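User: Sequence for Hydroxypyruvate isomerase below. Tokens please.
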Amino acid sequence: MPRFCANLSMLFTEVDFLERFDAAAKAGFAGVEYLFPYDVEAEAIKARLEANGLEQVLFNLPAGDWAKGERGIACHPDRVQEFREGVDKAIAYARVLGNRQVNCLAGIRPQGHDCASVEKTFVDYLRYAADKLEAAGIRLVMA
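Assistant: Structure tokens for Hydroxypyruvate isomerase:
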């Protein structure tokens, strides 16, 4: 039997982010996911999860400046440190929230970089993230 979780970035957008946890529970969901938790303190999210008996299923690694059209930085050769700091941040949030998997968004190929260098960067970043996440008991997923 399939199990579905509520994507709080897409559902219940008529209410503030933290109120979406209440709405998801009232709608019968047992788990939640969303694009990014980083604008809200992890402890505040955890309180909403616990208050509603919800499981935190998934969120994404930091993905650059979403408002400016970035959709991930894992293929950007010039952003190694930012990517690594994002992995650490995701691990810190996952430890508080209890999720056991994190998604990595590849991003859009940056101008001025050929496909081969972007592919190598992506593979290198994925290896780094997979090793760090595995050591923390978290699975790296690509969706």
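The mean pLDDT is 97.
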